[in-house]
Amino acid sequence: MVKYYGRCKLKQFIKSKPIRFGIKLWILCSVNGYVFNFDIYCGKNEEVDKLSKCALGNLLVHLKKIGLQATGTVKENRASVTNVLEKKAPRGTYAVQNDKNRGINFITVQDSKPVSILSTAASITPQ
Asked: Which residues does the UniProt record annotate as the domain PiggyBac transposable element-derived protein (predicted)?
């Protein structure tokens, strides 16, 4: 999200983010931070491509099959599995589930609130 408070049709509002107003960008980067490709989010479009109907977990499986590793946060209601942490769990507490058939790790970490992560690249070690 690029911070922007002016008037623009591309401006987005996301309530739970530190930068709430701005222009949303999707960026493909290397591990060194070099940008290969980027796209400015312009709202829903009618283009239908191969991956547009994939849920995040299916997208990660597809990317793994073609040799790409991926990691991303996911909302609890978007994942088919859940990790339960205690209500008053201290920051840094985590729970992990691993799907060995697909090679996906589902990790939930307690920050100020629980954060769920799906990854084909990372595990819990090293922390």
From this structure: 1-52, 58-123
